[in-house]
Amino acid sequence: MLNISLYNAGDDAYQTSLHIQLPKGLYFTKLVAQEETQIHFQISEKESQGVTINCSIGYLYVDHLSKVDISFVLDSSSLSRADDDLHISINATCENELDPDLLSDNNVVLALAQKHEVELNIHGSVSPASFIYGPSEENSPISCMEDTINVTFYVSNPGVSLAPDVNLLIQIPNSFLPRDTKLFNILDVKTSDGQCTYENHRRDCILPEEQGNMVQDLITFLTKLDNRPLFCMKNDQLCWQIFCKFGDMESGKEATVHVHLEATPSLLSIVILEGRHNQKTKHSVSVLLIAIGSLFGITLLLLLVLFLWKVCISVLIYTLVHFNGLASKREKNYFSKH
Asked: Which among 162, 221, 300, 320 would be 20 to 30 A from 336, CA to CA?
């Protein structure tokens, strides 16, 4: 809706005209004005300039100190993308204006900022969906996983307008707190459009040996979950940061980003990827479990021996007391007969 107020601050203006130049992409639909206002308009269109509306206002003149309000309904449905601002030029003239210097306020240019109707979608997939993690076998060679982990992200613009300067930030969890050992190596990042950058560290498949506390390792093993989710915070230093720039994305356009990872011996997964623990214990934890089990068994055996010993003593004392009682009774009977 284009609303115009025409105000005559001078003498009566004869044969007043209003000239409106619309930019390309905007079209005239209808005119809305007061019933008593006499307006005749003519529309012309040139491919290079757009639509021009020439209006004749009033019967013969516009009264002194009078105001005319006019509204134009415009159609912008043909604009499929947001470019620079749209400019609408408006010029009012009359036949009895003598001094051209007084026409400086008869022109106005309206700038309409275009808004982008952007609707970006993103979804992804990962293969494989899960893998086993945990301590390796004793004396087994330490190496990265033979099978790579492939993560694919799809970015699309299903909206009706161009999406300007589209960027994508991918964050991949890369450590198991409280340890900061790296979980993944990035082998390659490919994109179908634009460019992706990331901080490239050296490929490392060596797991540093940690001298952990046996009691702490035991507690960690007993409280460990089968599934452990990972996530990234904003500007997380413990996550891989992959930044992709696609530039302007047209309506209906799609970009694909492929990330190839390999898991270091330190383990785990990304976003939807699910890590499963192999439930194997460290050697130190196994020794500690055997020691605790042996100590518990020996303690139980000693308690059982002590219990049996006390039972035997009680039975022996009861037998002796009962035997002495019988002997005393026989002696009394013997003396009473003689």
From this structure: 320
Q: 189 Cβ partners below 8 Å, 6+ apart? A: 196, 198, 242, 257, 258, 259, 260
Name the DSSP class of 215. H
Structure tokens at 174: 């890369």
Q: What is the CA radius of gyration of the chain?
A: 45
pLDDT tens-digit profile of 217-265? Answer: 555 556 555 566 677 888 888 888 999 999 988 888 999 999 998 877 6
Distance between CA atoms of residues 55 and 64, nearest Å? 19
Query: What count of Cα atoms within 13 Å lies in the side-chain half-sphere of residue 218?
Result: 12
Spatial separation of the C-alpha atoms in residues 88 and 113, rounded to whole Å: 11
- Listed in order, strand segments (DSSP E) in the chain are 2-7, 13-21, 27-33, 39-46, 50-62, 67-75, 86-93, 107-112, 121-127, 130-133, 149-156, 163-173, 184-191, 195-198, 239-249, 254-263, 274-277
Give this prediction's pTM: 0.52
Instruction: Compute the distance between CA of residue 188 and CA of residue 150 in angstroms, rounded to an integer.
Output: 10
Please say whether the beta carbons of 277 and 225 come within 8 A. Answer: yes
Angle in degrees, CA 265, 266, 271, rounded to 5: 115
Give the ranges where the chain is alpha helix by DSSP (H). 214-222, 283-337
In sequence order, the 6+-apart residues with CB closer than 8 A to the CB of 172 are 151, 184, 232, 239, 240, 242, 259, 261, 270, 271
Asked if residues 207 and 260 have their Cβ atoms less than 8 Å apart, the reply is no
Phi, psi (deg, nearest 5) at residue 309: -65, -45
User: Is the omega angle on the peptide bond into residue 128 within 30 degrees of 0, that is, cis?
Assistant: yes
Three-class DSSP category at 222: helix
Nearest to 170 by CA among 133, 144, 196: 196
Give yes or no for residue 84 having a pLDDT over 90: no
Q: Which amino acid is at 201?
A: H
